[in-house]
Amino acid sequence: MNFGLKMKKSMMWFMVTLLFTAMMLAFPLSGCKTGEDGPAEEATGETAGEAAEETAETESAAEESGPAASGEEQVTLRIWWWGETEAQGLEPWMEETVALFEEEYPNIDVETTLQSIEQVFAGFQAAIEAGDVPDIQFFFGGIWCLEQAFLGNVQPFSKFFTQEELDQLWPMAKLYTTYKGDVYGFPFYAIGMAGVYNKELFSQAGLDPDNPPATWDEWVDASEKLKAIGIPLIGAGDKDNYDGGEFMSFWGAQEYDSILDLWKPVIGEEKYTDPGHRFYWDKLDEMVKLGMFNEDITSIDHYQGHELFVRELAATTWTTQPELVRWEQQMGPDKVGVMKFPVIGTGDLADTVGGPVQVLGIPTLAENPEEAALFFKFMHRADRVQAMYESAYAIAPTFQFDESFITSEVDKKVLDWMINKSGPWYQYLYPTQFEAEIVNPFTSLMWTGSTTPDEAAEGAQEFIEKWQNDNPTLVQAFKDWMSSAE
Questions:
Q1: CA atoms within 13 A on the CB side of 323
Q2: Residue 425 lies in a domain
């Protein structure tokens, strides 16, 4: 199994975790504890989120110099992380970074634990309950990190970083984990998501191999010409019901002018049955009826769908930026072209590219938070950022990353989009349960015509209304998140 297969298969566990969360949320929670991997239900009394806000207000930021180098006392810095299966080569990079860090700070011993995908959330929750957390914890970006901030389980970075240091982070990377004006997730690496197409198959179908479809009409035309030679336009597999979140992220925001529009139905200002918010369902229904996907989409897994492209049985698919590079190396640059998905909406966000960012947080109960912040600064030094790319083709979302580090033409194009065409990654911005209970199930039903756009939009609205009634504190947290993004 190659890197791509391993990454996709590991993300299947991600959805298992989501489904487990849906069951866990049936039990009342209190204090500052969360569900396994989704936002907790209402907490009783003063929430830990309020306590964290109080702490942030009373403990001034390290505006002058950030965390100082650790003193002479010997300490052990514990890091729980994930990412090797998504960006192969991160593990040796981490080992080297730790060795260099320990050499520079001999009084700090670093103990790393590479977690499995299913351990990322469940392991942290168990650690909170036991009162024995790591000093650094990996999180998926956006809501997957901020739910911990809402509940006071992670610390704000203004306690450890100057504003000048935080300004070195890419704006979109900060936005994903900024809450009430403070950053709670330190950007680890970006996984730019883009489309990929087979230039030779395009040529065989009479399409321009150097100019992939950029509009809806060109997308439809490409599909018809490729079908004429027996090739589906899009290779995908949804037997495991995972594709919905990524399809929603590529197309669901194209009617929006701002990231704020995306949140309006979440907080009750608009409805998922409104035209702009049901756009994804309407367009997906059209694509299915036009035969743009492979016929066996419901009988093969997510990662098997991507393999159709590698086997040259589909003309396009989508994947992460590190995997794009590996496919280019495997198949050759004469075959592999990288593309933005076509503009099919009319909003200002239609011509943007979403770039998910995975992050690291400092738990509120961490024993060595200043040493954790010191490690973050070390790993974002220009030499370590360059080494991360050379080892794993992973891009650290910081201005310390220089375009001169890049060795692949594919990466040059994706990096340009991530910086100059950056847009929101929808999957990281709605309530976590929304994906498991609405986005993925209804997407899967679309393949066989077992549901309609009307039913999907109505189901989404019914879900969000119940979520709003059950979780008024989380609704307010989303409003505060919106304020940070304005």
A1: 25
A2: no
